[in-house]
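This follows on from our talk about sequence and fold. Please put the record directly below this note.
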Amino acid sequence: MQLCTDIYLPSYPFIQQSLHTSISQVQLTLPIFLIGYASSQLFLGTISDRYGRRPVMIFGMTLFVLGSIGCVFAPNISILLISRLLQGLGGGASGAIGRACLRDRYSGRDFGRIIAWIAFGWAIIPLVAPVIGSYIQHLLGWRYNFVFLLLLSVLCWCTAVFALPETLQHPVQSIRLRPLAKMFVTLFSTPVFTLNALCMSGTQAIENAFSVTAPFLLQKGYHLSVITYGWIIFIVTASFLTGSVINNYLLRFFSSHRLAKVGVAINFTPLLILAIWAFIGHVPLVALIVLIFIMQMGSPLLFTNCSTMVMHPFPNLAGSASAIMGSCTFFGGAIASLVMTRFHALHVLPVAIVMLAISAAMFIALYCIDASTVKT
């Protein structure tokens, strides 16, 4: 999923010019993907509890391939948006079903460590994707970023068809609306689930608020080249990788809940400084990079540990809990991205205020709810 959202971001200004559209319309290509991704997880995860992980994954990958073809050949922004929605709908399978497959095989601290290493991989992909995308844009043009995704999606489809084993050992007998509604109530009436799903959603929202703004902010606001943009995002994202390594080490000594609280504090402080600085006057490029770098370092401590805690109470509803958790996360990212399309993308203050508000909400949630309700 990270590759699908990050590799084409350097091309934002060029898509705008090529398709003769507005900044806000190009920015919509990110939230519309996230809306599709979040929506499909609501039903794909639940369906996989009944029919198995493998067939649902294959269905999702097929949709993603079709969406990628549409992106490659899109003649206008409308077709590109529709194709991105289709990519998101298919891509939801990789999130919901992938986590459910892990939950089928692992539990407790073992599951937490697996999630931590996956977060490490999540840090690597957004680290290199903008650099790869910036060079593809520089050498070939924006459509070839989607050619890259198309080739990768075909490879994933082949893997799902020919190599993916079925991990679900005890499928539910049927899918009924009333028990499904009761399950939703059960999940969201559990403070552990609600709190951590909210914090995961907020973490994704902050990331996407910056992602949807940065291509125009850095390339047009700070007048940087597309290659320079890619390397700056590389530097900023390296902090997520650093935070992931630190989190993996600290998990040996501290609970997930305590590390999540440390993560939100690291996340909040530089955003407060950035918002105040942007309100007072111009934020130098170096200061922007340093503050975002520090902010990103807290994100893996927050996201990874909340991901562990949100799944822990529901071993028998792994697919459904995973799907709802994933949907909440990416709906949060979609909402933040949509909000940012309403603001000026060439100035720091709007995105700083939005990110600070989200971080403050997570800060209050984690520090006000009794830690004794979290058992990890």
